[in-house]
Amino acid sequence: MKKQFIIASLLVLLAILAAACGPAVNTPAAPDAASAANTAPETEPESANTDSVAVKTEPESQIQTEENVIEYDANGIEVGFTEDGRPYRGNRSAPVVLEEYSDFQCPFCARHVSETAPAILENQIANGDVVTIFYDFPLTSLHPQAVAAAHAARCAGEQGAVAYWDMHDAIFAAPSEWSNKNADAVFEEYAANLSLDVAAFQACQSSAKYEQAIEDDVFTARSRGVSSTPSFFINDRPLIGAQPLSVFNQAIEAALSGSGDDETAAAPPQPAQPTQPGAVPTPATIPADNFAGAMGDPDAPITIVEYTDYQCPFCQRHAQQTMPQIISELIDSGRVYYMLKDFPLDQLHPNARAAAAAARCAGEQDAYWEMHDAIFNSQSTWAESAAALSTLAADLGLDMDSFNNCIESGKYEDVVQANLEEGTQLGVRGTPAFFIDGFPVSGAQPFELFDYAVSLAEEGTLADAYAPREAPPEPTQPAGPVDVPVGDAFSIGEADAPVTIVEYTDFQCPFCGRHFQQTFPFIKENYVDEGLVRYVFKDFPLTSIHPQAVGAAMAARCAGDQGAYLEMHDALFAAQGEWSGQGNATALFAGYAGQLGLDTAVFTACMESNKYETAVAADLEEGVNLGVRGTPAFFINGNFVSGAQPYSVFEEAINLMLEQ
Fold first, then answer.
1. Confidence band for 140, pLDDT divided at 50, 70 and 90
2. Which helix or strand (DSSP H or E) is residue 641 part of?
3. Sign of torsion, CA 587 591 592 593?
4. Residue 520: in which H helix or E strand, if any?
């Protein structure tokens, strides 16, 4: 069941994530049952790793700054904050304003920061042509630590703009250090390493004072049509995804020259968009000729056709990371016949056609796939000069006279162009692009997606995954008091206390952990222990982003069988960073039970029986019906309170209820 949840979630995300050179095409959606089971708050798509430019004409952006807050970093570049508090780098009067909407936990944002942004900083920003402004756009449904990271950068910024950018760079430099651990502790280490006032930084972090400002950035982003990270506006013209430096250079040059005023000037021509599949989608019919290379049994039950560009970095990723497993598990097993066709994106990758011809010429000597691998493995060496492709042929021991004659003849120019036109007619808009028995899948997807889609095709149900589904109505947050059933949920405090607080929580949620550490102890001490509040615990596991949350919820309930619900509740939150990153945390939960003096055999039997799985699911469904969209969520005498609010919010609300 958990594997189905994970794969279903993966498919839903990949349908909008699509890491590809060029805009994405449709990817199969998850089956209804799995989608329905995987209930979570609002989800937001991560960046399409696109190697193309989307541009539109808008009025030029302006930048405003407060007086007397300008600083210069170690490289002599001006840094500061705009009038509305957003950090910037560069000359305030620069003719080009580059606005970035980013998520500190997004791997594609990190790639931009490490691979592309430094060159822009050293060139266009340093010479005064560009000023960049940073906006936070945390995709919390995918990246639970993104808000904490954004908050840490802003807290560092209280000690100066240089400190902000130093913290910004430190956070992006090592996401693995904080993404699955106690992020705040890691950020404090960064603050110390940057010689900041750590006490002031800690106080700022614990106050959560910038969470509203971060939400304001998210609102600004959505109002401008941003839905993924990283996203950019260059003089108010959008550029989506972690594009290579050449794309930014082109767009910046267009803005400087004024040619950007022509909406089509900086955008490569795009093929026609594919027809959206209808209720009963019709698979594409792809000619079985003109392919560059093929593997497997032509009579295999399933056919995969790939359209590729040898200079595309995402095609390279597919060739190196995913293709070996496709070969060993799908092709060599006789399940799949695999054909590769060419789709060179000429405006982005000027040597892609030459590489396609080189692979085909090697194929005349039965070395197509060897050349295919060699080209992708040495992509950086020949991307600047196609002449280096001959060296690869020589290294493979090919007959160089025959190879060179093939290249010089240009004999494959027409067939490569035919592949490109064929793909365009099929709706291919970027690379890599795939058709599994005629159904499109876009981008450098993981092997699990191919394996899952092939399995559906073998069952004859792949078409069902493409059928449009009516989106469920989005739950609305309750505007007034609602009746929240308590039932047999675990609670602390007097049953007849004048105020009842019901919490819907996720043991793996970092914001629930923050509530447990910073707010819950004061509520318990000042109100629960005084007989004024009954505090009720309910489960709301967000399985799409917290795969261990259901297990943790059951662990608390199994401990409750031995009178230790609250003790296990506290232990799980206290050790959240220890078990959250484990593939199977059950052994750790049993260890906690032992430390609490419980009968571990009884506890383990309870866990293995999945005794409380239905009850946890019932809490989740109940919360959704009440309008809960994320965790933690609370009802104070039926009045809804969302999020890890500071203690003062609860104090005010409880006192108001007591007065009534």
1. confident
2. strand 639-642
3. positive
4. helix 520-523
Helix, strand, coil shares, percent, the chain, to 5: 45, 15, 40
CA distances from 258 to 96, 252, 393, 531 (A): 11, 10, 44, 70
User: Coil, strand, or helix at residue 342?
Assistant: strand
Q: Which amino acid is at 628?
A: V
Q: What are phi and psi of 337, to 5 degrees?
A: -105, 130
Specify the pLDDT at position 581.
62
Q: Give the span between the Cα atoms of 336 and 461, in whole angstroms.
A: 16
Asked if 135 contacts 217 with a C-beta cutoff of 8 angstroms, the reply is yes
Q: How many residues does the chain have?
A: 660
Residue 660 has pLDDT above 60, yes or no: yes
The DSSP output letter for 434 is E
Going by the DSSP 8-state scheme, the letter that residue 123 receives in this structure is: I
pTM of the model: 0.40
* CA angle centred on 622, ends 617 and 628, rounded to 5°: 105
pLDDT at 531 over 70: yes
Say how far apart CA 114 and CA 377 lie, in whole Å.
Answer: 21
Count of CB atoms within 10 A of residue 514's CB?
20
- H or E element, residue 433: strand 433-436
- Mind listing the pLDDT tens digit for each residue in 578-632? 887 665 688 889 999 999 999 999 999 999 988 998 899 899 989 988 888 888 9
Residues β-bridged to residue 337: 303
Q: Can you tell me the distance from the alpha carbon of 6 to that of 549, in angstroms, rounded to the nearest whole number?
A: 13
pLDDT band at 188 (very low <50, low <70, confident <90, very high): very high
Distance CA 375, CA 391 (A): 10
Query: Among 13-22, 329-338, 409-418, 422-431, whose mean pLDDT is lowest?
Result: 13-22
Residues 530, 541: Cα–Cα separation, whole Å? 30
Closest CA to 192 of 166, 172, 214: 166
Of 621, 618, 626, nearest in space to 484 by CA: 626
**In this structure, what token pair is assigned to residue 115?**
């691979």
Domains of the chain (ranges, CATH numbers): 53-261 (3.40.30.10), 293-466 (3.40.30.10), 491-659 (3.40.30.10)
Is there a cis peptide before residue 271, judged by omega within 30 degrees of 0?
no
pLDDT at 332 over 50: yes
**Residue 520: both structure tokens together:** 């819950």
Q: From 535, 601, 593, select the one nearest 560 (Cα to Cα).
A: 593
d(CA 117, CA 447): 30
Question: Other C-beta atoms within 10 Å of 73: how many?
Answer: 14
What does R_g of the chain's alpha carbons equal in angstroms? 28
Per-residue pLDDT tens over the stretch 273-322: 333 333 445 688 888 889 999 999 999 999 999 999 999 888 998 999 99
Say how far apart CA 252 and CA 246 lie, in whole Å: 10
